[in-house]
Write a structure and sequence with these properties.
The protein has helices spanning 3-11, 15-20, 34-37, 108-123; strands spanning 23-31, 47-52, 58-61, 69-73, 76-80, 86-91, 135-144, 147-155, 166-171, 177-184, 190-197, 200-202, 205-207, 210-216, 222-223, 229-238. By secondary structure, the protein is mainly β. Strands 1, 2, 3, 4, 5, 6, 7, 8, 9, 10, 11, 14, 15 and 16 form a 14-stranded antiparallel beta sheet that branches. Strands 12-13 form a two-stranded antiparallel ribbon.
């Protein structure tokens, strides 16, 4: 584990506390232009989300209908009813995005896959950076708005479903992740810049509660319009 990842763990409550915790749950609010582009304006806004920390699994509910919830895993995304009965499912969901770009419409199950992989990436961090096959390396610094950030390059294995196999995390002087860069593989490798704030301490873990995601230009700077995705969390709990 790199020295910078050690610094991040210290800022987020310590690796031992993250390893003890099992799940993070919250009320999730989504905004931004992406959902309308994909044909689902307002989708998955104001719903409950639960992320498992030791396996890649996410539950979001309700999903379009009261009593329906999404069950996300890397190789399968499904909609289930309140009794656990299968409503619909998509196996090998990532393959279904072949040929997509930023404006290609999604099915509801593709929406569920995107949201599940994104929310797991966001809420399981930094513990996810210690999973088998994940590689981290500190690279050069970056200065933005007068603030200097250390940077951690992350390479994820194929066994982990995330928005991009290579991502760069920007860490401030206190060890908090404040930005991430990646290219959204399931949307034609669209370059994105993602700002992170609202860090809160919850049951010994530090959890960011606000995310603002924009397109990124060739110089690594954000394109200010449109705001592509916003994520806000309330009522965060750790179990």
């Amino acid at each position: 584990m790199s020295d910078l990842l050690d610094t991040v763990f210290d800022a987020y409550g310590g690796r031992a506390r993250w390893e003890e915790a099992r799940r993070i749950s919250a009320r999730q609010f989504f905004g931004g232009a992406l959902w309308g582009m994909k044909g689902h304006p307002g989708a998955l806004d104001d719903v409950d989300v639960t992320v498992d920390l030791h396996r890649q699994h996410v539950r979001q509910e309700p999903f379009f209908h009261d009593g329906h919830h999404v069950s996300f895993a890397p190789d399968r995304v499904a909609v289930e009813d309140a009794d656990g009965g299968l409503v619909e499912e998509l196996l090998d969901p990532r393959a279904s995005f072949a040929g997509h770009d930023l404006t290609t419409p999604w099915t509801r199950l593709q929406l569920a896959y995107f949201s599940g992989s994104a929310m797991w990436t966001y809420l399981a961090e930094p513990l996810s950076l210690t999973f088998p096959g994940v590689r981290t390396e500190e690279i050069g610094t970056w200065t933005e708005n007068g603030e200097k950030f250390r940077r951690l390059r992350v390479a994820f294995p194929d066994t982990i479903a995330t928005l991009s196999s290579e991502q760069t995390l920007y860490v401030d002087g206190s060890g908090l992740i404040r930005r991430r860069d990646y290219s959204v593989a399931i949307a034609g490798d669209t370059p994105a810049v993602h700002y992170i704030s609202g860090h809160q301490e919850v049951s010994g873990l530090v959890v960011p509660t606000t995310r603002m995601i924009y397109s990124r230009d060739e110089n690594g700077h954000r394109v200010p319009e449109p705001l592509v995705v916003s994520v806000r969390l309330e009522n965060v709990t750790v179990s």
